[in-house]
Amino acid sequence: MRKLHAHGTRHGAMSTAFEAGEQKEEEAEARFGRKGVTRRRALASSLLMTSSLACAESAKADDVDSIAELAKKAYAEKRLDDADMYLTNIIIIVERSGADPTATCVWYERRGQVYVDRKRFNDALVDYAVAEKRAPENYVSLGLLANRGLAYDCLSQWQEAEREYSRALSVAENLGFSAPYLLNSRGNVYGSLGQYAAAADDFDAASRVFQTERNLAGAI
To answer: Disulfide-capable partner of 172 in 103, 125, 157, 179 (CB 3.0 to 4.6 Å)?
Structure first.
């Protein structure tokens, strides 16, 4: 049986900051049209970037945990160039340390996420491929699948995007997560592929989840 992870923490790593959506389009417009790149905000409460150590601006160059904190802080402040630099430094340090290759898996995934946010989608796909290749046996990352789907989506590679979104939705279901933003994203892809019935099914499913969440919020 494969182990399913919404996030992973290796070497004091940040957990996946998967944010799957917060689409701008209104429901009627979203049915079969595209309104630009989806902003990723779904599941943020459970998949936020976290770290076990306090941030230290005076961190030593070889202190991976402290550099990870700097990367987390830079990402939160949308200083993506800095986040990229810190994560690249971590990758270099860990690889030069002779550690098991799986130790770099999480860092390639995090940097891939930064590349997506920087609209460097092909670079993100390269990092995700490395992360997946170096991942521990039976490890599956929801964040990696969803963000790779988004990278393909933004490159208009619809079939690849549908594949990754579908894999991410399967993982989310196994983890017990509702993922309406992912459903909307896949629905948009189905629309781009001309699979309008499948698109409608995804939009309807997402709408039901949103309505359920609104009802629950109103009852609290």
So the answer is: 179
**Model-level pTM?**
0.71
Phi, psi dihedrals of residue 191, rounded to the nearest 5° = -60, -40
In degrees rounded to 5, what are phi and psi of residue 178?
A: -90, 140
What gap in Å lies between CA 128 and CA 111, rounded to an integer? 9
Q: What is residue 3's three-state secondary structure?
A: strand
What are the two backbone dihedrals, phi and then psi, of residue 5, each rounded to the nearest 5 degrees? -130, 130
Residue 15 buriedness (CB in 10 A; 0-12 / 13-18 / 19+): buried
CA triple 99-105-110, angle to 5 deg: 125
d(CA 17, CA 161): 19
In the chain, what is the greatest distance between 2 CA atoms, to the nearest angstrom?
Answer: 55
DSSP codes of every residue in 8-25: --SSSPPPP--------S
Helix, coil or strand: residue 41: coil
| pLDDT score at 24 | 31
Q: What would the pLDDT profile of 141-177 be if each residue is shown by its tens digit?
A: 999 999 999 999 999 999 999 999 999 999 999 999 8
Q: What is the DSSP-derived secondary structure letter of residue 50?
A: -
